[in-house]
User: Fold this.
Amino acid sequence: MDVQQIIFQFVGGIGIFLFGLKYMGDGLQRTAGDNLRSILNTFTSTPLRAVLAGAAVTALIQSSTGTTVLTVGLVSAGFMTLTQAIGVIMGANVGTTITAFIIGLNISDYALPIIGIGALFLFFFKSQFISSIGQVIFGFGALFYGLDLMGNGLEPLQHLQIFSDLMVWLSDNPFLGIVTGSIMTFVLQSSSATIGILQQLFSQGAMTIEAALPILFGTNIGTTFTSVLAAVGASLAAKRTSAAHVIFNVLGTIIVMLVLSPFTSVVNMMASAFNLNPELQIAFAHGVFNLLSVGVLIWFTPQLARLVSRVIPGEEDTIEMYEPNLDYSLIQRSPAIALDQTKHEIIQLGKFVLEEYNSMFDYYLNQNKKVMITYLK
Assistant:
């Protein structure tokens, strides 16, 4: 067993996988354009619609973390309420399961031709739209090529006794599996990467479903770390949104862990009934887990918002006239929404200028000192 080759293939595979995932997500977001903004602006009026919006946006950008951080920015900018944001976060968890199902397609043998087709679209067409489509195709192929390399690197692990003992230990200690999944997701900054590793290990017989499920549940908790970091130094509303993300994902994990044994039985039964391959079995478990969490907790969205407000008390500071409320992180994450926010601030600035003009004009006509004193304050 060549340890160096195992490490190189695994690390290189993860790198190509993460690149492919991000590149595909960026291409999808460029293709969607202003639709991303429209989805968040239009379809968040009720908790259910907010969940659907969160799922749709996550499917477009292929990153639940990106959706959550984007939501934190929108709440901080005043474009979204806390209750709406909670619904979007719930939907983001559902939307990220699409990546697991894509991985479950198991078309690694066609990864290189797919990359070639994507490169053709990227370099031989001048249309921005076709170039974005090429980016999606290229990223899609890179994702599967990275998975193939990663799988080749992980394959020898099933023959190691120490690894087999570790899997048995995790099967007997589900809590440690949750911690493992959380840490892996935090380190890799991608729940999809952690799930991809699980799918490869499970498909090779190196891991049982009993060991895989707690790690799978832990990925949801691991994704919350990024939104917590995004809320540091942000507004009170953004901090509450981040806290809601943590509370929702932890509660969802607790709910499923309470019914872990019947949940495992259902997953095994459905895998047999639909003849699912190992990768799709993990994807199915991930989807059912998130749908169950959302199905239970969506009815308590207002209560969750009140709980978060109690956990993080306080009143939002009033924004002064000369302090623009702009979130610069949106420039990279979603230029369309950043532009929308800029337009909003320009309108606010216009209102302030008009108010100041009226005050000065009133003072000029009436010599009203009270108006000037109020203005100077």
Remarks:
- Residues 267 and 285 are 6 Å apart (CA to CA).
- The two ends are 76 Å apart (CA to CA).
- The first helix runs from residue 3 to 32.
